Amino acid sequence: MNRSEAEIKLQQIFKINQFYDHQWMSIERVLNGERILLIEKTGFGKSLCYQFPATQFPGLTIIFSPLIALMRDQVKYLKSIDVSTECINSEQEPDVNTEILEKAKNGRIKILYIAPERQENREWLDAVREMEISMVVVDEAHCISVWGHDFRSAFRRIVNLVKQLPQNFPVLATTATATERVAKDIQNQIGDNASLIRGDLLRDNFQLSVVKINNEESKMAWLAKFLQKQDGSGLIYTGTRVNTVLFSAWLQFNDISAANYHAGLEAESRKEIENGLITNKWKCIVSTNALGMGIDKSDIRFIVHTQMPQSPIHYYQEIGRAGRDGLPTKIVLLYNPEDRELPEHFIENSRPSREKYQKVVDTLKIEPLGEWDLMRKTNLIQTQIRQIKSDLIEQGIIREVMYGRRKKCEYQFGAPVLDTRPFENLRNFKLGELDKMMSYSESSVCRMDFLCRYLGDNTVNHCGKCDNDKQQNIQFDVDEYWSNKIQQFRDSYFPELPVETENSNTRPLAKREKC
Length: 515
Prior knowledge:
By secondary structure, the protein is an alpha/beta fold. Helices cover 43% and strands 17% of the residues. It folds into 3 domains: 3-198, P-loop containing nucleotide triphosphate hydrolases (Rossmann fold); 206-337 and 443-496, Rossmann fold; 348-422, Winged helix-like DNA-binding domain superfamily/Winged helix DNA-binding domain (Arc Repressor Mutant, subunit A), CATH 1.10.10.10. The protein is built from 19 helices and 18 strands. The N and C termini lie far apart (69 Å).
């Protein structure tokens, strides 16, 4: 199929007149059975690079994606243009997922979106053997690389699947954020012969700026002042769940419609807030980085970070959903050098202590155990157990085996001792990335050029729209008006509570204190 023939089909199915050059380049290679890593900026149209070939292949296209919200949006869109599409994820009832698997086995689906964690599910592993698969897609492929900003061990299991496929089997990995080191790692993971297609990363409608502030009061005052004058809706990123609640309450106190969002909310609540953002119910969503990449809204007019991201790649990824309609969009980082402490804490504590690894190993030497039994016997939480399991499996110290219908971890007697050097190397690498984010905040060069060069695109030089290119040095201090307003908020948000004294049974409350 040549480009002209493909674009006739493109218009018939997707109602799009033509491909971008890089879209067609990747589609043509995929149709020829090649393995491709496609790195293009958010809003480029990477999804078309696998959706179109999927309509042309005879069998099923499986798309591994970690973004449930994006799955929902894509399934809804593809069904609206009569492309048979389904998704399997943890938010759906098990019987719904089972029914979809049956449809996939019977050839009644062209595209199946699925979370990478399904690679650990026995029902999925049994079902996939009965499917006629024509293409495998790894979306958000930076998650494959341990050097990527959002590495997930479940993606390694996708790699195991990909390596078992024939050399001429089409595999497409896509991402908007991969340094040269990460890109090479992804290419190695998906196949020695995988080729790279990298586009320019310039977002020419972005107005990047850094506002220097001294404390949390300055953040609160700047946010309220900014949002009272800013058109459109957008996202405010914070570093903790507590701050999503605090900042959203502060904005509501100033008559700014805001909702808070984080991964701890129930699935239905998250979905309701996402829909509220898309329908402009809210001026802004105050969120941890749990929100963003899965949101299909082209007119996000601003993104503000109140907390230092862990690296420039995190930052580029998180601002990437803004301004996909091409209109001017404000991207602001509120910068206090002391804010380094929080991401540094996350990096330092990203892995459990060596003692906890040893506790798991010693426990499994006694008997094979499933995840919940392992949690109970070691008194470790689920996130720690999963990280430890992943690392021990990676180093060949334990393996997962099926005991009847239950999956258990089994110690490999004669295995090498735990090597923590890779953890230290990764920790030092991430601290170096945090240093680069600090450099971005303090740099006097074009901010877009800084981000693009970091990601391997050296074509920008000057965007002409950031604060540095405009020779602006933005500093914000709290004046008396905002200081009084913040105190009023604190008085209402942190109510005075009675404090009982030792003699509270014989006399009234001694005093009232702020909580």
